[in-house]
Amino acid sequence: MKTALWYSFFALIATVANIGSQDVAVRLYQGIHSVTASVLVGTAVGLVVKYVLDKKYIFRFKVNGLGHDTRTFALYTLMGLATTGVFWGFEFGFDYLFRTKTLRYAGGIIGLTLGYLIKYHMDKRFVFRQRGV
């Protein structure tokens, strides 16, 4: 239960980092692709924040050098592709349906929440299992 609470807290931190960086990005660039660019920025920021927190505090995963950490991050990112599809589907879907920044972000938060629920189990099984390091 303690792990679930910490994981939820870290998911909240990553969600705030994601949505916050999206908001900054869309304020800095207001061109034709501003929403897409902001979602990509938010995805990258949220990914890195969540990886660092999950690796250190949830899975207590030890890496053996930069190469091992890079491979682990690559696998973490690969596992996140499906869940990123869920997140993007909700955010872009809400943007298409409602055409407001607030509801677009609400869709993003819903998508991130569902994605993180799925991603925890994928990461536990495939990414952060201690193998020979």
Describe, in plain words, how this protein is organized in 3D:
This protein is an all-alpha fold and 133 residues long. It starts with a helix and ends in a 6-residue tail after the last helix. It contains 4 helices and no strands.
Brief summary of the model shown:
84% of the residues lie in helices and 0% in strands.
Strand content: under 5%
List the total number of helices.
4
Number of domains: 1
Ends apart, CA distance between termini: 28 Å
Number of strands: 0
Provide the residue-averaged pLDDT: 94
Decide which structural class fits the backbone.
mainly alpha
Q: Can you give the helix content as a percent range?
A: over 70%
What layout of secondary structure does this protein have?
Elements: H1 2-28, H2 34-58, H3 66-98, H4 101-127
List its salient traits.
133 residues, mainly alpha, 4 helices
